[in-house]
Amino acid sequence: MPIADRTPPKIPAKPFPEETRVPAIRPNAAAGAPTPIADDGTNALLQGGFWILLGGLLLLLLAKTVFGGIGIDGAHTDAGWLCLVFALMAVPFGLMLLVLGIAKWLRNRRLRRHSA
Question: Does residue 20 contact residue 55 with C-beta atoms inside 8 Å?
Fold first, then answer.
């Protein structure tokens, strides 16, 4: 029998355990108390984006000053090429993380302001 004709065995679906479900409303929350916003990774995005962006800019600065500079054909040394390649990866990625973190921070601030 060819492999393509065989069907994989069906794995029975397990029900989601009741003890891991999160209630929609906190049972002992006071009526007027604002619900705390859970940690959604905003600080990690902000810190990671900042440090990756800073590292990429530092690598770009090193490629332009310490490692021979960057000409019209690219970096002049092997170390300069490494710095340039890593900087060209780190700067856009760090900027993306930083912008996403700022957007989430602004959203959380707006949610806190409207829930209070």
Answer: no
Q: Using the 8-state DSSP alphabet, how is residue 111 labeled? A: H
Determine the residue type at 108: N
Distance CA 79, CA 73 (A): 15
Q: Per-residue DSSP letters for 60-105?
A: HHHHHHTT--EETTEESSHHHHHHHHHHHHHHHHHHHHHHHHHHHH
Copy the structure tokens of residue 8: 């994989």
In whole angstroms, give the CA distance from residue 100 to residue 43: 11
Q: Which residues of 27-66 are buried (b: 16+ CB within 10 A; e: fewer)?
A: eeeeeeeeeeeeeeebeebbebbeebbeebeebbebbbee
pLDDT tens sequence across 19-77: 555 555 555 555 555 555 567 889 999 999 999 999 999 999 999 999 999 999 999 99
